[in-house]
Amino acid sequence: LRSFSASQSTPPNSLWIWRPGIYEDDEGRTWVTVVMRLSPLNREWPGGLSSQGSTYEPGITVHVRQLPVHTPEPLSPSQLLFSQLLPVWQLYPRRRYQAANSSFWEIVDQIVSMEQLVLTYWPARND
């Protein structure tokens, strides 16, 4: 991975959870979750199987920003069980990350000047 700067706009190859809301990339830089937002998604059941016609499945949008964070040692996996976000994201073709659970998160915005990524997960697109 090269520097994520105005001259090199490549997102990190990998992000590993360090503490809830804090990730580390393959260069040892920390990325902090600055915004996490759920968005409603109404999806029709195939063949009209549901009496209500749709289900509620939230999409998730996460803003992560590269910020230096001085934290103690990372938490153990058992201490991270209650983190709402995934433990690992791996950069994949077509400007998206594949998470440890095989879901895909699209890079919907990249603010190079702030070293910020905006990632979105939509359940309907991951079936």
From TrEMBL:
Superkingdom field: Eukaryota
Name of one Pfam family that matches: TCL1_MTCP1
Family annotation (Gene3D superfamilies): TCL1/MTCP1
GO molecular function per UniProt: protein serine/threonine kinase activator activity
Coiled coil: none
Family note: Belongs to the TCL1 family.
Protein name in the entry: T cell leukemia/lymphoma 1B
Species per Swiss-Prot/TrEMBL record: Chlorocebus sabaeus
Lineage: Eukaryota, Metazoa, Chordata, Craniata, Vertebrata
